[in-house]
C-alpha cells in the first residue's frame, strides 16, 4: 500500500471532502441494510404459511454461497465496481419490495435475486473503503495502512448500527402495532398424554399439536412491516 512521496499532496480541504463523501456512502449503506435486515429477521414470521419465509431465506443463502464462487468475480470484471454496487443495491430494494406480493413464485425469485445481490454487493464495498482510504492518505500524508484501517473500522462500526436499527424496527412491528384482525378465536383442543411426548428434547413438531396454533396465527399489519 505504500506510495511514493510524489503521489502525496497534502490538502486538508480535499481530505475533508473525501471523508464526507465516504460518510455519505456509509449512510446510504445503513439506510439500505436497516430495511433489508428487518425484513430478513421477520421473514419466517410474515410469510409463515407452508414455511415460505424460511424457504426464501434458504434460497437466498444458497445462491449467495454459490454465486460468490462462480458469478461475482466475472460479473464485476465485466460491469465494473460502480455498476456492480448500484445493481447490488437495486437487488436489495427489489427483495424488500417482493414481500408486498408474497406468492411462492415471487418470493422464490426474490430469494435468488437477494442471493445474487448479496454476492456482488460486498466486493465493491471492500474495494471502496480501500479506495477512499488511499485518497485520504494522499491528501493527509498519513501512513496508507493507517488510513485504510481507519476507513475499514468506520465501515464495520456504522454497519453494526443498521443491525441495531433493524432490530428496533422488528420490535416496533411485533410489539407496538395491532394485528390485522381483532376477532377472538376460541378453539378447544383435546390433549392426551401421548402429545406431551413431543415436548422438550423429544419435540418433533407433531402436526396435531402445531397445526392448531399456526392456524390461529395472525401476521402483523403489513403497512407497519413495510413502511
TrEMBL record:
This is Protein unc-93 homolog A. Coiled coil: none annotated. It is found in: Membrane. It is a multi-pass membrane protein. It comes from Ciona intestinalis (Transparent sea squirt). Its main location: membrane. SUPFAM superfamilies: MFS general substrate transporter. One of its GO terms (cellular component) is membrane.
